[in-house]
């Protein structure tokens, strides 16, 4: 199959420019296409407010934690969505106030919960023990803690069930949900102010998001009817797909970039009857990760050797390995080849590490390449940098690409000096 370049933000990178970038920033190197990702966020924000004015977009930190990229997008008005104390501290270091941080995740320490409460962050509870800990902290601080409940709708077979309070589709609240709500309502130190649901990842079926909207609206409506409880916020998480096909799809070229207009219409429309029934407008939060970050990052890597070079099959070694393209075991990330001359042939791309599993793509039709040529994987902006690790070779650097040969460092490449900072030699006898 041939490569579909229709959704390639790096298609203007030719051999000359690839060589220029590699000489300046080394190879391999991650590239983030600045204009494209900023435009995607702006489109998300504008369309969401079109459907419901009180909407806020929060960045999923775990999807891509590069500080300079997050800071750039915070400048465009995005909040932070974090799932650990470490990510919370990144947000505060970047100048994000607590009132603009959504704190999710199954593990939050007492110190982290205390800081989040004092700073006014949005706290989503994953389990009952977390609610108990928040109550104790709020009592000690002599204040009432506003909290949200994370829900998972277990009757939707494709939904994640690992996190949050499991509830079914219903016309009335299930008994265990009533128990949790009554437990919160009975405490003078707790205030149930929000609901949160995140149904999965890389979802292309918009019917799943429409079901999320219906289920969340039904739960919130029952809270209103049974407890006269008007929520202050609803958080619908993320999960919308990017462009990279999964390996089990047996597809080579990228998927179309999902329509934000269709996604937002599917999700927000069933929520509107509840949202418009409230006496005070509730905030509606989105936490885009993959669909915001994934399409607009690439990995530039150079061919450094040939294992086999035959007319029917080429086996080539790149200077980027599977520790760098860390999501290649799940996705066939699209490829852009700056050099497009010559006939195409089936090609296998290997990484440089001494590991049998270090293969970067299924066999694919590529132009005839030789050592010194470049290939660029794109659609790698989601989790690839998060999951990358130092194994035999260190992690490459990250640049913010402005177009042409204009780029700036976002993160320097790792080196032996960086890696040695935490190492200690035993004291000799």
Question: Explain this structure to me?
Answer:
This protein is an alpha/beta fold. The protein folds into two domains: 15-31 and 295-420, Lyase, Ornithine Decarboxylase, Chain A, domain 1; 34-292, Alanine racemase (TIM Barrel, Alpha-Beta Barrel). 30% of the residues lie in helices and 23% in strands. It is built from 13 helices and 18 strands. The strands form two sheets. Strands 1, 11, 12, 13, 14, 15, 16, 17 and 18 form a nine-stranded mixed β-sheet that branches. An eight-stranded parallel β-barrel has the order 2-3-4-5-6-8-9-10, surrounded by seven helices. α2 packs parallel to α9 (260-268), α5 crosses α6 and α8 (206-227) packs parallel to α9 (260-268). The radius of gyration is 24 Å and the shape is globular. Mean pLDDT is 92; it is low at 1-5.
Shape: globular
- Please name the CATH architecture of the largest domain: Alpha-Beta Barrel
Q: Into which percent range does the helicity of residues fall?
A: 25-40%
What name does the CATH topology of the largest domain carry?
TIM Barrel
What number of domains? 2
Please, how many helices?
13
Q: What is the alpha-carbon Rg in Å?
A: 24 Å
Number of strands: 18
Task: Report the sheet-strand fraction.
Answer: 15-25%
């Amino acid at each position: 199959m041939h490569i579909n370049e229709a959704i390639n933000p790096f298609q203007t990178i030719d051999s000359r420019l690839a060589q220029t970038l590699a000489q300046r920033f080394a190879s391999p190197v991650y590239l983030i296409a600045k204009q494209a990702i900023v435009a995607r966020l702006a489109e998300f924000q504008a369309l969401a407010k079109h459907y419901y004015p009180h909407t806020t977009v929060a960045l999923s930190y775990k999807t891509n934690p590069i500080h300079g990229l997050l800071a750039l997008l915070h400048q465009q008005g995005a909040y932070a969505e974090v799932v650990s104390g470490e990510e919370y501290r990144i947000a505060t270091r970047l100048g994000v106030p607590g009132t603009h941080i959504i704190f999710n995740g199954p593990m939050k320490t007492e110190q982290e919960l205390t800081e989040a409460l004092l700073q006014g962050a949005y706290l989503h509870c994953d389990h009952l023990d977390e609610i108990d800990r928040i109550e104790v902290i709020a009592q000690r601080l002599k204040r009432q803690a506003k909290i949200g409940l994370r829900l998972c709708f277990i009757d939707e077979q494709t939904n994640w069930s690992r996190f949050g309070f499991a509830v079914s589709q219903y016309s009335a609240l299930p008994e265990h949900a009533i128990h949790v709500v009554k437990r919160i309502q009975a405490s003078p130190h707790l205030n149930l102010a929000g609901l949160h649901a995140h149904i999965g990842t890389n979802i292309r079926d918009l019917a799943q998001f429409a079901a999320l909207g219906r289920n969340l609206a039904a739960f919130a409506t029952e809270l209103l009817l049974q407890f006269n409880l008007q929520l202050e916020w609803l958080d619908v998480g993320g999960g919308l797909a990017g462009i990279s096909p999964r390996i089990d799809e047996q597809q080579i070229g990228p998927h179309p970039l999902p329509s934000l207009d269709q996604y937002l219409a599917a999700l927000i429309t069933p929520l509107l009857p509840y949202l418009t029934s409230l006496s005070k407008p509730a905030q509606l939060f989105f936490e885009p990760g993959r669909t915001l970050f994934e399409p607009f990052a690439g990995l530039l890597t150079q061919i450094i050797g040939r294992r086999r070079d035959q007319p029917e099959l080429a086996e080539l070694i790149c200077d980027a390995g599977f520790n760098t393209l860390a999501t290649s075991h799940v996705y066939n990330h699209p490829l852009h080849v700056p050099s497009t001359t010559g006939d195409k042939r089936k090609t296998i791309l290997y990484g440089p590490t001494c590991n049998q599993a270090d293969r970067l793509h299924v066999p694919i039709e590529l132009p005839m390449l030789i050592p010194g040529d470049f290939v660029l994987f794109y659609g790698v902006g989601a989790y690839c940098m998060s999951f990358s690790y130092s194994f035999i070779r260190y992690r490459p650097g990250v640049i913010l690409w402005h177009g042409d040969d204009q780029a700036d460092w976002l993160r320097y490449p790792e080196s032996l000096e960086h890696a040695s900072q935490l190492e200690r030699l035993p004291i000799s006898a």
